[in-house]
Amino acid sequence: MLNVSQPESNMTTASQNQDLLRIVLISTLSTVPSFVFLYINGTILFTLRSKPVFRDTCRYILLYNLLLADTVQLAQSQVQFLLSVCRVKLAYSLCTVLSMLANLTTGISPLTLVVMPLERYVAVCYPLRHSSIITVRNTTVVIIAIWAVSSLNNLTRVLLFLKFSLEKIESWQIEDVCSRIALVLGAVTAEYDRAYICVVFVSAGVATTFSYVSVIIAARSASTDKALAHKARNTLLLHLVQLGLSLSSTINNPLIIALSKILTTVAFLWVQNVFYVCFIIFPRCLSSLIYGLRDQTIRPVLLYYLCGRLKVKISG
Q1: How far apart, in Å, are the Cα atoms of 180 and each of 92, 95, 147, 283, 315?
Q2: In sequence order, what are the beta bridge partners of 173?
Q3: Any residues with CB less than 8 A from the CB of 236 and at least 6 apart, and which?
């Protein structure tokens, strides 16, 4: 009996070591880029509050709102991903709270991308009225409205959750790891999510496309600032890229669900990590790359803080 149990024990130990190594590798591959971009995003957020030129300029106020939502979403997603990789099970109530936070912050980015292209449209097409239309007060009201709409969406999901039969939540302990996949409450919730996502992203796409076409038309006018129009056009193109990446994150869960049925556990964990980096981390980090390095006003201050407040010579 001893000779039989010894190889089985060695095999069990080797399997546990392989699982531990796999968890460490997957966690590292996602955690390192997450922390890098969390640091960059945090630095940009601090930068945007460090000088009056940023605090009193409407497009930087909108950028701060966009980056804040992306940063919170990135941090929350990373925590939830690590819990999933480590197979940590949470109480249903705690998992619901994490899911609500994810829904709230996820909705902020596309809603903000509805407003930001319109601000550039007014700046190029109505430069004389820009200062009277796009004011700090109006921008603050718009940001409050954005958070209100996203909160209302969250409240609707909570109401759907309360209507969900408590008999299906045995002992309030989630059967699987905490994720939005585990919290699908039924066909009504799924249909509502699809409808809300379609409305938000179609609105953002229409706003960005309309602003882009209007800027191109305005750029042909002799009275338009050509440099401003060219810069606005490029910014609007980047908004479309941001919108596309944000939309791609919504297909993450359906793909994960489909692949979980056909892949082995090991292959599924690696695919899940790749999808997480591509569909969750990368879209959350694009805003900092676009604005932090591209914007001539933000870039010197950002590099100043990123380099430990050392004097940095900026070219161009």
Answers
A1: 12, 9, 21, 18, 45
A2: 91
A3: 117, 120, 208, 211, 212, 215
Instruction: Kindly state the percentage of the chain with pLDDT values over 70.
Output: 72
- What mean pLDDT value characterizes the chain? 75
CA distance 210 to 212: 5
| Dihedral in degrees, nearest 10, Cα atoms 211, 217, 220, 221 | -90
Mean pLDDT over 27-34 rounds to: 76
**CA R_g for the chain:** 23
Backbone φ and ψ for 91, nearest 5 degrees, come out as: -60, 145
What's the gap between Cα 134 and its chain centre?
Answer: 25
Spatial distance between the Cα atoms of 102 and 282, rounded to a whole number of angstroms: 16
What secondary structure does DSSP assign to 219-287, as a single string? Answer: HTSTTS-HHHHHHHHHHHHHHHHHHHHHHHGGGHHHHHHHHHTTS-HHHHHHHHHHHHIIIIIHHHHHH
The angle subtended at Cα 61 by Cα 149 and Cα 155, nearest 5°, is 15
Nearest partner of 265 among 9, 18, 78, judged by Cα: 18
